[in-house]
Specification:
122 residues, mainly alpha, two-stranded antiparallel sheet, 2 strands, elongated
């Protein structure tokens, strides 16, 4: 094992000597390779930022729609007196807590799109 020869101490309190730490070589890739790594990391983050921004925009639109719908119901622009409220069975309520198939498909599409963006960046 690396450094075990230079360990000192006993009773489970072994430590590496300061000389070992001072002389330990940490490999650092050349500058051009570091730049390539950074480009790759940035492109991955950009793809995820795109997904996050799109999801946030959809959330904002849904909230805006909800606010508008509530306002329309309160002001009487939308008549909800004849709307039936469906009572869900316990199983359906439990399922509703998780993701629907449509949500799963949308997430899968977003991930595929992100992977496509990553491939384009490369």
């Amino acid at each position: 094992m690396l450094g075990t020869e230079s360990m000192t101490g006993s009773a489970g309190q072994q430590r590496v000597s300061i000389d070992f730490v001072r002389n330990f070589v940490i490999p650092i890739p050349p500058k051009n390779q570091q730049d390539e790594i950074l480009k790759c990391v940035y492109s991955i983050f950009a793809a995820y930022r795109t997904i996050i921004n799109r999801a946030q925009r959809e959330i904002d639109l849904i909230r805006e729609y909800r606010t508008r719908l509530i306002a329309d119901v309160v002001t009487g622009k939308v008549d909800v007196r004849k709307v039936e409220v469906r009572r869900e069975k316990e199983e359906e309520r439990e399922k509703a807590k998780g993701r629907s198939e449509k949500e799963e498909e949308e997430l899968e599409e977003m991930l595929e799109e992100a992977e496509g963006l990553l491939e384009e960046e490369r």
